[in-house]
Queue: 2 jobs
Job 1
Amino acid sequence: MTASDVVFTDPAIDDLRRIGPDVAPRILKRILLLLENPEVVRLGEVVDRLGALTDHLHVDEPPAREPVPDWLADRLIYTVGMTREEVAALDLERAVDLWAEFHSNPR
């Protein structure tokens, strides 16, 4: 691996900008020194091989959970009497069901 093989992601570039012109050159120099370290080079090769072995794997991400709107969360907390933690653990469908159940039961 050579210095020309190093590719910085946008967040990494943003980090370098944020740390400023006094520190960024020292960080970049350390990165270049790592490229000369045989152990780091071997580690990079192992990571590359592992990546190649797992290229065919696909992990499905769970569907994004719709958040409970603030107004409904407030009603469940202040009117129904649930804790914030209980409401935070709910998905939108369950929160609506609990609110409807609360309204349908006479008190």
Note: Residues 38-53 form the longest helix (16 residues).
Job 2
Amino acid sequence: NAAQISVSYCEPWANKDAPLKALKWMFRDDAPLLFRPQLPFGEGWQQWRWGLQFLAQCNDEAFERNVQQLVALGAYSHAALKDVVAATGIEYNRLERGIAHYFTDQKTFDTAGEAAALMRKYGVARRVVSTAELLAIEPAFKPFAHRIVGGTYTASDESGDARVFTQALAQRCADRGARFLFGHDVLRLEKAGGAIESIAVRPRSIRGESGNLAYLKADEVVVACGSYTAPLLRTVGVDLPIYPGKGYSATFKLLKPELAPFVSTIDDEVKCAMSRLGDHLRVAGTIEVGGYDLSLDTPLAKARCKMLADRIEEVLPGVCDTRLEEQGGTPNFWTGLRPATPTNIPYIGKTRVGRLWVNAGHGTLGWTHGAGSGKAIAELISGEVPAMDFGFYGMDRTRGSLQASAA
């Protein structure tokens, strides 16, 4: 929800340096990646299992393999999004100004060329830029120039408001006959004879009264429930390593729009990203791997929200109203669960249960990969093979056909 369409900045969390960094960050409330161990029972065991599989991906060979998959899906998805925008004319504070990434540590910046070269290997024009070049691309960061040692930039990336876009797209779908059951809970999947027979749903309770249980039937069922996909699928014997990563965002009103950035940008030091959305600035970052907690009022959550506000004030002094509520400000803090896989590659394809498909596990790249994932799952259900080199779940890549999945 940093509003980025980030084909080029899709590196998986799992890399050779991640284990040591995660250990160093475990006791820092403002750590970019915070692993909060749960007791190894029930959902806590799912966290430990996920963590072990994550560690298995922390090597150069797996990293490059995962990057290739993420770039392929990202490029396919970016093209699909452009097609939807062209066909619908939806406006969503879109800015086609690329994405910049600045560094404040020389040692880290010295490795930026390797990452840029890897992206270029797979068709993404990411380039290393000097501090002067970065400031020419986005002058808004001049007050912070004394800290910036260099950066990278990809002109083909963009940004825009995912919420505005999806709400407008949903309305167009409804106008064409689609039905959305908002305010309903999916209770369970009903299986009979090795296939999904129905989905049990119930309207959420109002004034303590529960609505009537309903059973939905369909020719094919796609589970795309984000972090809640895994526990739902386990009820019918499909076990996927998707675990929630709690992410934070803040939306600040611009006080000096003329000094605010137009280029969506990543801050490498604190691992946050920022994008301009009309007369506001959206900043998002940090991940907690610690269960399904969505609270914003705990000391830890407050510390992480304050970190975002403090960083924006440091980088763009006086540009946004970064005051907290107790200081008289009106920041819009938000938290959500990123459905993460150990590889960061989502599961898109057919399960071994009849009529049951999955489209989940997009982590922090849901906006980047959303349009292409939706197009791909529709093509797969229709018996087509999407035109990209991607390991679809349940698909025999050598034969180009869908087979029964083992999971």
Note: The chain has two domains: 4-165+242-340, 184-217.
